[in-house]
Amino acid sequence: MATAITIPAEREHYLNKEHGISSWLLTTDHKRIALLYLLSITFFFFIGGFFALLIRLELLTPAGDLVQADTYNKLFSMHGQVMVFFFLIPSIPAVLGNFLVPLMIGAKDLAFPKINLLSWYLYVIAGIMMLHAMITGGVDTGWTFYTPLSTAFSNTHVIEAGLSIFVAGFSSIFTGLNFVVTIHRMRAPGMTWSRMPLFIWAHYATSIIQLLGTPVLAITLVLVVLERAFHLCIFDSTCGGDPLLFQHLFWFYSHPAVYIMILPSMGVVTEIITCFSRKRVFGYKFIALASISIAVFGFLVWAHHMFVAGMSVYAALAFSLLSYSVAVPSAIKVFNWTATMYKGSISYSTPMLYAFGFIGLFTMGGMTGLFLASLGIDVHVTDTYFVVAHFHYIMVGGAVMGYLGGMHFWWPKISGRMYPEGWGRLAALIVFIGFNLTFFPQFILGYLGMPRRYWQYPPEFQVLNVLSTAGSTILAVGYVLPMVYFLWSMRYGKIASDNPWGAAGLEWKASSPPTTFNFDETPVVTWEAYNYDEIPTPEEVAVER
Amino acid sequence: MSDSPATMEHGHSPALRHHFVDVEQQRNAASLGMWLFLATEIMFFGGMFCAYLIYRVSYFKEFAAGSQSLQLEVGAANTVVLICSSLTVALGVRAAQMGKRRLLVMLLLLTMLFGLTFLGVKAYEWHREYKEHHVPGFGFDAKNLIEEHPNLGIDPQHAQVFYSLYFAMTGMHAIHMIIGVGLFTWLTFMAWRGDYGPEYYTPVENAGLYWHFVDIIWIYLFPLLYLIDRKPLG
Amino acid sequence: MFNNFPLWPTNASTIAGDVDALFIFLLVVTGLVSIAIFILILFFAAKYRRRPGIEAEQVEGSTPLEITWSIIPLGVFLVIFAWGAIIYFHERTPAKGATDVYVVAKQWMWKLQHEGGQREINELHIPVGRDVRMIMTSQDVIHSFYVPAFRIKQDVLPGRYSYTWFHATKPGTYHLFCAEYCGTQHSGMIGQVVVMEPSQYESWLSGGATSGSLAQNGETLFQQLGCTTCHRSDVQGRGPNLVGVFGKTVALEDGRTVTADEDYIRESILNPGAKVASGFKPIMPTFQSIVSEEQVNQLVAYIKSLGRPATGVAGTPIVGSPQTQPQNPKVQ
């Protein structure tokens, strides 16, 4: 177990307080549960990444030559399901959120520690079901489970995969529920709503989506399973059902789910940019409000996934218009981050490099979202590689960059050790280059008309596909590197001080790593968030010493 | 479990968990948590209500005919049973607040009895529908519906959609009832041990909220499924 | 490998130019804004890099600035929305008098049939310079009819018709893709659209051996299935007289009204009880699982042809003599 690390045991903290497997498997400490999540989502990230590499290798040549068509279909289906439900959705909330939400608001733990542990067990059960479905033959419906393919035509393990995601959904619901209650009820004295870090606002918005969106996916998957197993007739057109109803219900969750992935990442980036610019955040209220409005508007745009699905023209017009309403708060955030850097004192530490990468990639992802929300263009590029590139820019370029940036930023707090800075910057650079090389060509492929989920393709698309595959190998290196040096640093890294970045935020007032109940005394907050004018930089601290 | 020994060290209420400041905060948190959970449950059933609404508008004839094939009296009686169980559970919360242990146990048992009665009656109804070939996927046919309403032009497929939703919705509701009965079994045991009193009755209160929610779902399901159109359809 | 490396798709329909124009507009606008943001970030990062002794200067937020950068993007977005919506509206509104092609999609094949009865698989021959409308349905799962060179795409659903149309502007052979994932051989469900000069097209049409036009086959089927017993063309039988019904508004038994389009005819064949015409009893049996999707198409084509100027052989005046057809005014 990677967590059994040996930090010189002079001081008691959450890692060395208890030892042994059961002290981990039965823990109710939010920080330990965060580490359990870290291990499990990393596992699934590399499984999903392995599938992605196989997909890219298959697409190196136009002919379907590396794997069979069936295998290829299973690869991209399971890549999507694993990455979406077992990595991206839990990634930042369940790891960084779990670790940091109580710390940042000055609480001893989340409101319901046992439910928090239950969340993780649900995740593990769901993960085992998914692995079992994979090992016994996989599932080939795409991550979208479109009916009637999933209910009547696929002969793969749809039921098990569907139930697995159902269970994973409840894990996500309980995480969100815990966060909302914790943020409402457990804030330290003086920690008013307008003093909360924007990371907390982002998680609050995320949790609302988890609470209100996920149950709809759950019931939709139950209906799919019932229709497939017992021939209930709800989505099947051969007995009076409507397959479009499935799509509406599915996207009612699965579009807001994108914001479950990206909002926490935006929260992370806000923390990083303020810290490494030594600045109060520009437009605190607007960023907080933008998070909430993204969560709210996010529920009103789902049918923009269905412009060519057979909806009425007028419904399409309404959903296109509403889609632009989500773009405004996203734009506000980008402008505010940029403005925060103005007249700052900017250092290029690894987390900041990831934050730069995030803004760049998220901006491109968001801008191409404008193309897709535009009805006339969407008809041409939907279901092509343009869409694939777009959502990878948001969900990998955005969410994963934020996740990695956050992992580097808070690693000293989590492990009590510093990661090697040089390697960190190198990895950030590799990820950025690899990512763009992988996914930028896919925009062109999409506009040329290459449909997604194609196992073989016309030869004129090959050059761009080769570039994309080349990029994916670079990207893989960029993702493996941090895992290696994080593991290395747990033993050999420099001991981290309580506040190595000179950062604002209550979590940096706790020791590194924190004790089991985070603070020896409940802190009393008398300052606004991001009071960087009152906090010495690490350089100043070093000089004073 | 690091918090149970911790509670011993301090002098406060044994029910207060260490990470809360006081009992008040703990109770508020638990209550908010339960209400949020019920909000997710509303969304869960909301998906099916949405499907129901769409198909009811499109296939009204078949929905009305299907609705008439359900036994109104049985459904109505079951509704009464469920409302009674809501009353007993509400009284139970009161008993817990007042620290009346025996009364609480009795009321919880009574609630479970009502719940099980409801489930039994529901099972009887399902069995009847099975015998009439109204279960989709198990030799479904709409012959008797067509015979009953010869001039309506019943489409058997659309009728099948009605019964699919009927079974999905009542089935999901029944699963929630079973979970509720399971909860109450555990609560009864805890109440028998004397865990609940004026100081600490949050689990009873929250389980009660859950039970009321399940009741309310039924209060919607009953008219939506049994009372679509009860006048002669022709 | 490098001799065939396009960076821009072929433009071969009237819509394609419109889509490209909006796309280029968006590329320019989003490109400029993105580059401005990136330059600003790099500039700040360089200018305000951390230097000993120099502290950050705190700047409070600015509400006017926030409002500015909310309103201006919103205005730009509304322009993009309106422009895209106009194109979409155009894409979704087939011109009157278009040539119909019936499409039945199945795992993993496109089956197409022209009004004149010519059948094709995974290949569609159409003339340049004429509106062509696709009337599509699926036998199994959801597929999507996608011709990148025309910039059109439409999902094809089981149990209903979906439509798309285009007006080809350039002879040539273009990709036809299935764009909605449909199972194992999804990527094999491809074909080509062959756009021909009208004269070539005519000779292609006459070269294909057909056993009668769609409407003629539909008429035969209509008699074989005994539809004529109730749907009589001289007097009102037990079912409505279908002559001239296509395109009309039909009053229903329950008080609603519907337009008798392809979908309504299709539904009335497969689910006759769903929308019964006013004054009639719901006595018609369903023909689901009695007629195939292709046969439904033939029946629909026949009923559409009833009451048209040239009764019976509906295909002839439209398909047979394109020169006499007035050109669509929208042609560019």
Explain what the structure shows.
The complex is a heterotrimer of chains A (545), B (234) and C (332). By secondary structure, chain A is mostly helical. Chain A has 16 helices and no strands. Chain A has helices at residues 21-25, 30-58, 69-105, 113-135, 149-153, 158-185, 198-230, 243-277, 284-297, 313-341, 350-373, 375-381, 385-415, 421-448, 462-492, 538-544. In chain A, helix 6 (158-185) packs antiparallel against helix 7 (198-230). Chain A is globular. By secondary structure, chain B is mainly alpha-helical. In chain B, helix 5 runs antiparallel to helix 7. Helix content of chain C is 34%, strand content 20%. Chain C has helices at residues 14-47, 63-92, 198-207, 214-224, 262-270, 293-305, 315-320; strands spanning 99-106, 109-114, 119-121, 123-127, 131-138, 143-147, 152-156, 162-167, 172-178, 191-196, 249-251, 257-259. In chain C, the strands form three sheets. Chain C has a five-stranded mixed beta sheet, with helices on one face. A five-stranded mixed beta sheet of chain C has the order 4-10-9-6-7. In chain C, strand 1 (99-106) and strand 2 (109-114) form a beta hairpin. Chain C is elongated and about 100 Å long. Chains in contact: A-B, A-C, B-C. At the A-C interface, helix 3, helix 5, helix 8, helix 9 and helix 10 of A face helix 1, helix 2, strand 7 and strand 9 of C.
Order of helices and strands of chain A: HHHHHHHHHHHHHHHH
Low-confidence stretches of chain B: 1-10
C-alpha end-to-end distance of chain B? 66 Å
Portion in strands of chain A: under 5%
Structural class, judged by helices and strands of chain A?
A: mainly alpha
Question: What fraction of the residues of chain B are assigned to beta strands by DSSP?
Answer: under 5%
Q: What are the secondary-structure elements of chain B, in order, as H or E?
A: HHHHHHHH
Major sheet summary line of chain B: none
Give a short summary of the structure.
Chain A has 545 residues and is an all-alpha fold.
Output the keywords.
heterotrimer; A: 545 residues; mainly alpha; 0% strand; B: 234 residues; 8 helices; elongated; disordered N terminus
